[in-house]
Amino acid sequence: MPKFSIITINYNDHEGLKKTIGSVIGQTFKDYEFLVIDGDSTDGSKHILSQNASRITYAVSEPDSGVYNAMNKGIRAAKGEFIIFMNSGDLFHDPEVLAKADALIDGQHDIYYGDVIVKKPNSERHKTYPNKLTFAYFYTNALCHQATFIRRQLFFDHFLYNEDYKIYSDGEFFLYTICKIGVPYKHIDLTVAIYDFTGISSNPKYEKLHEDERMASIEKFFPQFADDYKVLSKLNAKRTKQLFHIENYPMAWKLTKGFMSLVLLFLPKIKKS
């Protein structure tokens, strides 16, 4: 059994696929398998897979029903102890990432997550994650799966990604396993990936869909907190952010998130009084 299963999903992004393959095969740590799930691309991606066949453990190119259907195909085919998703266009931060991760992953936890470089067309920023993940954190945030190593068996002990969702399935999985089941997790001091922030989840036109799917997950697994979440959603609304110029003032946004967490903490007490 290899230590890591690296799963790359791709659809008509041959340039991104080429970069991701280069990043994976450039890792100095070699105890991994590399799986590429292509959605029957027509842009030359299949040719790239053919060119790199000797470096890819498992590859398939066939129609799928969406991102999470493709990811689930990869999960089912994987054999490694821990899975990490590095989709087309995403890169490991440097050639030593897997070697460093191997030293930091002690096997005592089911989820290990590091930090990322979020890359936009004209900018990039270093995003760090907290050591402690609370339910309040998942109200407004999510882990980046390009920087997260998930024990493969965890999917089969609970469930694979929800293929009815287009954006929030990985968020739902983390919300359920960490906040509902309480699986052991650990933040590792490592910048894992350079995350290509141009996908569907970062597109403003899908913002409402993302929120609706998150709300559906809250109502499914934490119905007792659904009303509180709706209050928080209003506080976190785009217009509220614009009012305080949150995007331009990171410290103000940090303080606002802290205030929201306090609201969540005291809401149940207020209701009882």
Automatic annotation (TrEMBL):
It comes from the Bacteria. CDD domains: GT_2_WfgS_like (cd06433). One of its GO terms (molecular function) is hexosyltransferase activity. The keyword Transferase applies. Residues 5-131 form the Glycosyltransferase 2-like domain. It holds the Pfam family Glycos_transf_2. Keywords: Transferase. This is Glycosyltransferase involved in cell wall bisynthesis. It comes from Flavobacterium caeni.
